[in-house]
Amino acid sequence: MPGDVGTISPPDVTGQLEDDSLRIWKNGDAAFMRNWPYAYVESMRPDSSVRNRVGVTLLPKGDHPGARHADVLGGFQLMVSKKSANKDAAIELVKFLTSPEIQRVNAVTRGYAPTRPDLYDSPALKANSFFATLRNVLLNGAVTRPSTTAGPQYNRVSAAYFTAVRQTLIGQKSAAAAVTELENELCRLSAK
Fold it and tell me: Rounded CA gap, 172 and 168, in Å?
């Protein structure tokens, strides 16, 4: 893909934020988009030029043994502070927000991935091929973001990864050189 920036991808693609790419996509000015699951529901809204013309698939993977797709979980973490003045009410709110009913509504209306595997078998989600793809990714080994492993270095780890990918995409470095430098930087950060 290096060298494609400025040809099949706009020159500013490596600097676009989520909202930028979603806007360009919904306007019908892009053939591909990588985004979080909510973008599928946004793509189906009446104001979208790509409504009902969208497919979802896995990101490509290498062909070496053990290669895997780049499937990463993000998420919304709900917590209750042990210092909360209304701990019982807060706990009940978290239970409500993570209930099957609310997860089903959030999946259908917002594109949020349910955390309860059985919800993927509900008629509302089964009727949508997007959720079948998402279900397979989530239930077959998607990995969580490295925030737990990276701890307080998460922002630096994320920036190092972003930089290496960007440098490769714009042809500033070869993929091999960028990966080697990224590995060295991640080792340096993990030693802190």
Answer: 6
